[in-house]
Automatic annotation (TrEMBL), chain A:
InterPro entries: AAA+_ATPase (IPR003593), ABC_Ni/Peptide_Import (IPR050388), ABC_transporter-like_ATP-bd (IPR003439), ABC_transporter-like_CS (IPR017871), Oligopep_ABC_C (IPR013563), P-loop_NTPase (IPR027417). This is ABC transporter ATP-binding protein. It comes from Oceanobacillus profundus. Belongs to the ABC transporter superfamily. Residues 5-256 form the ABC transporter domain.
From TrEMBL, chain B:
The keyword Transmembrane helix applies. It is a multi-pass membrane protein. GO terms for biological process: transmembrane transport. One of its GO terms (cellular component) is plasma membrane. Belongs to the binding-protein-dependent transport system permease family. This is ABC transporter permease. The chain crosses the membrane at residues 9-30, 100-122, 129-152, 172-191, 226-252, 272-298. It is found in: Cell membrane.
Length: 333, 310
């Protein structure tokens, strides 16, 4: 399995009147061909900024990629011009947005919005584009596609619109699909249908998926690997099994403990106390220190190096340090 | 749709009737008569003239006679220019006024939208400040001041363009500029603000994510949505341009309808007042109707034939 995407040391900042927000502070991850990587974290941790950075859709000003590289099939997208990016967007990398109610243009027909991508990029005739659009509508499970192409977004329900957004993203057969909270705006039954659709699409097209979400339920269903983000950094990555069954970072554990579980009746949920740090002036050490029940003096001062627990499982936490382990054994935690 | 048009048509007729009635009431309540200024006419001649134009009848009868003349589209002869019928005056003046009005609208809409888009795309940039500077000037300077300034500078001092009348395209430039600047400024400001709002919408980001060119994003995805408020304000602007033509026609000595309209009121030329008023109001009402129809074309969510929403 080759790597389709490699992000190294990505930094994104936003310059505002109040100061500079360091939204993404050195993110590293990679994505293998045909797999689904979930980036998980609470609101404001930099998930969406990371995904927008890959598409180079960060509005500049105020946003800017200040450092790092985004290698897509070996080519560094950070160095690409706006024109070069245009030939990548929608063709090689597609994006699905959070809210299907606002992602479609209310004044254009579904057909127009579906077909304009293929027409612009592949220069096909409108008949060919229409054939392709109908094929996509079938793939995402919209019945009577011929008729529905002529309709406008307001004639579709939320779930149907998200299917259309997915169809639009897939029509040029991209190699990478970035889904930014694709199910957050939908109700639970529709969420399940959309997630099944993702699985079906991946089998049918072999597309690699980056799934941005804060919902661990969604992750458990379709992710292969998980990257946990906190305050602009990835603090733990691993396979789904490793993250769910052997979480190492206290924040990952906190996240898992704050998910309601059907099998544990009557137990209280344990939320993580406190709030994430202010990214105008992020702490020098581990950003989770202030909320971490195991915080040590060193945590506040120096950011921990990445520790490899297995080939796929990496964590940035001082608790993984040999010296800390001795300490923990000593106090029998 | 047909039902909607029929309904609108009926409402338009009622509106027109109200305008006619109000004009009649205003007209007869202004002191004076068409024959006041005629020093030569004595009492008998005057009585004969009044009888000739049915002005000796009681007001309700006069009112009914007016209604009849409107329904038959025959406003009768002008009192002040007895050898000409009101219909002749309208037929002569309307094409010129129409040309002035329509050209003004076209110039104002196109230049206003372009200025607005440029300002929005270069938000807080030099072009934005320049465009909005022009817009503020355009809104603040009344068209009659601008008209006089243009005549003074361009026509008199620099002798680049003719000062008055309406005989060639070169003659049209100054009056249209004077009349179009105000509406253009309003359209430019409105387009800019709605465009800025629309450009932050998710579907614009989505269009970018599709890899569309900036040109397509602006004209296919953003502009259509940004134009809705512009269409809304078109009704008011049309009324403004229409009244503006009276003034501009006077200043540039353009032989349009506006001249007859203003003169007829000063001279109490009742048939001409009635004829021009009815004509102007009918025209404005029809234009407003077209604006409403334009809504449905721009935004498919607006449907005319159905009651309530989806």
């Amino acid at each position: 399995m080759g790597k389709i995407l490699e992000v190294n040391n990505l930094h994104v900042t936003f310059t505002t009147y109040g100061g500079t927000v360091k939204a993404v502070r050195g993110v590293d991850f990679h994505l293998n061909k045909g797999e689904t990587l979930a980036i998980v974290g609470e609101s404001g941790c930099g998930k969406s900024v990371t995904s927008n950075a890959i598409m180079r859709l960060i509005p500049n000003p105020p946003g800017k990629i200040t450092d790092g590289s985004i290698k897509f099939k070996g080519k560094n997208l950070v160095k690409y011009s706006e024109k070069q990016m245009r030939s990548i967007r929608g063709v090689d990398i597609s994006m699905i947005f959070q809210d299907p109610m606002t992602a479609l243009n209310p004044t254009l027909t579904i057909g127009t919005q579906l077909m304009e991508g293929v027409i612009a990029h592949h220069g096909v005739s409108s008949n060919e584009a229409k054939r392709k659009a109908i094929e996509m509508m079938d793939l995402v499970g919209i019945s009577n596609p011929e008729e529905r192409l002529k309709q406008y977004p307001h004639q579709f329900s939320g779930g149907m619109r998200q299917r259309i957004v997915i169809a639009i993203a897939l029509i040029c057969e991209p190699d990478l699909l970035i889904a930014d909270e694709p199910t957050t705006a939908l109700d639970v039954t529709i969420q399940a249908q959309i997630l099944e659709l993702f699985e079906k699409i991946q089998i049918a097209t072999g597309v690699s998926i980056i799934l941005i979400t804060h919902d661990l339920g969604v992750v458990a269903k379709i992710a292969d690997r998980i990257a946990v983000m906190y305050a602009g950094k990835i603090i733990e990555t691993g396979t789904k099994r490793e993250i769910f069954y052997k979480p190492q970072h206290p924040y990952t554990r906190g996240l898992l403990n704050s998910v309601p579980r059907l099998d544990l009746k009557g137990e209280k949920l344990t939320p993580i106390d406190g709030t994430p740090p202010d990214l105008f002036s992020p702490p020098a050490g581990c950003p989770f220190t202030a909320r971490c029940p195991f915080a040590m003096e060193v945590c506040d001062k120096v950011y921990p190096a990445s520790k490899e627990l297995s080939e796929s499982h990496h964590v940035n936490c001082w608790l993984q340090d040999e010296r800390a382990k001795q300490l923990l054994t000593a106090v029998r935690l | 749709m047909l039902k909607y048009i029929l309904k609108r048509f009926l409402i338009m007729l009622v509106t027109l009737w109200v305008i006619i009635t109000l004009t009649f009431i205003l007209m007869v309540s202004i002191p004076g008569s068409p024959f006041n200024s005629d020093q030569s006419s004595n009492e008998t001649i005057r009585a004969n003239l009044e009888a000739h134009y049915n002005l000796d009848e009681p007001y309700p009868i006069q009112y009914l006679l007016y209604l009849k003349s409107i329904v038959t589209f025959d406003f009768g002869p002008s009192i002040k220019q007895p050898n000409q019928s009101v219909n002749d005056l309208l037929a002569r003046g309307f094409p010129i006024s129409f040309e002035l009005g329509i050209l003004t609208i076209i110039v104002a809409v196109i230049s206003g939208i372009i200025l607005g888009i440029l300002a929005a795309l270069r938000h807080n940039g030099v072009i934005d400040y320049l465009a909005m500077g022009i817009a503020v000037l355009g809104i603040s300077i009344p068209n009659f001041i601008l008209a006089t300034l243009l005549i003074q500078q361009i026509a008199v001092t620099w002798e680049l363009l003719p000062t008055a009348t309406w005989s060639s395209p070169a003659h049209m430039i100054l009056p249209i500029t004077a009349l179009a600047t105000g509406p253009m400024a309003i359209i430019a400001r409105l387009t800019r603000s709605t465009m800025l709002e629309v450009l932050t919408q998710d579907y614009i980001k989505m269009a970018k994510a599709k890899g569309l060119s900036p040109w397509k994003i602006v004209f296919k995805h953003a502009l259509r949505n940004a134009l809705m408020p512009v269409v809304t304000i078109m009704g008011t602007l049309l009324a403004g341009i229409l009244t503006g033509t009276f003034v501009i026609e006077q200043i540039f000595a353009i032989p349009g309808m506006g001249k007859y309209f203003v003169e007829s009121i000063n001279q109490r030329d009742y048939p001409v007042i009635m004829g021009t008023t009815v004509f102007y109001s009918a025209f404005l009402i029809i234009m407003l109707f077209l604006v409403d129809i334009a809504y449905g074309i721009l935004d498919p969510r607006i449907k005319f034939h159905r009651k309530g929403g989806e």
